[in-house]
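Same chain as my last thread, 394 residues:
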Amino acid sequence: MPESFMAGRRRILQLGIAGIGLAATGPLLAACSASDGSLPGPANLDPHGTILAGDVYTLNQIFEPLYLTAVDGSLQPHLATGHTVSPDGKTYTFALRPKVTFSDGSPLTSADVVYSLKRAQSSKGPLSFLDGVISSVTAAGDLSVVVRLTQAWSPFTSDISAFSNSIVPDDLQGKPAAEFFAKPVGTGPFTLESWVKGGTVTLAANPKYWNAPGPYLDKVEFTVVQDENQLVQQLQAGQVDVIDTVPPANFTQIIQASLKQIGVTISIRSIEDAAYQAAFQKFDFDLFIDIAINDISDPDEMASFELDETDGGSNSYWTHYSDPATTALVRQAETEPDSAKRQRLYGQIQQKVADDVPFVPLSYPAAIKGLGSHVQGFKVNPAGAVRLKEVWLA
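reply #2:
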């Protein structure tokens, strides 16, 4: 890395984030997210209460979990240094990393972890189902946390790595949630400087970040750009450094043209993200298009989220699909400790989905990011998560 950069030359990373919602009306009532997989600006900075990609992109810079999914897909200890598991697979003991501090300089202790995991489980957030097997969380000293489960659970360490299990200060430092998350305090490499809900966000480097070296950027600016063509043009012109998604073909228009050939008419109109979310969570549609991402390194999150109507957190991905045999396979895979046997179970699950067609996978899009040639150290893990701690500008 250049010495002039290390000496403290001011560096600001500007990211353009496209955000647009589409819906179809007419004979069919449909609610569609952005067909290109783009992000609206963040509207909720509570990691225990959101699932929207625009929120998570920002949350990943402010908060951190006990484990992280690395770029190669492996699970790596982060706020924890490691863990042990009891012989029956039902008790996990996490050793916390010493000398970790929040952005206000206060030390991370077991009280923060106990509070965070309990809050994540009880939040009724969209990913709280990941913590459904937790029966208790207790401190065993300042730097040790014991988590007891109702049953052995193979994906548990992966579940702990989800952004929805990020660690916040104990009792939110005595503040109401709305007040705390308007100016959040986390252990991550950046802090919130300014924020327009649903729009622009500016992050500043956390001067008390515990995991040196880094961050190397003084600031990060997220800008929402609604027009896809303008987004690419701004990258090419150097007005932004990174765009989150290089726009692929518009699936909504492709489907519209295909259905027209069989006499089904769909008209497309713009709809704000909040209205889209409200429509599909109320099942107020006949057809919708969405993009799902597995946030952890284990296949269970997506399998249960999309196929377990009662315990998966989304009524089988808002389809009400309910097949007892498929649900039984999902739950068997969750408790099976043998990796080879789990792989065979997921093969059976995939075959059931192919046979029953509860939803139609239109594509498996690559996570394509657009970068200026001067952006260095920008890495994406298999779930599409980006952490900017090691990014710098040449």
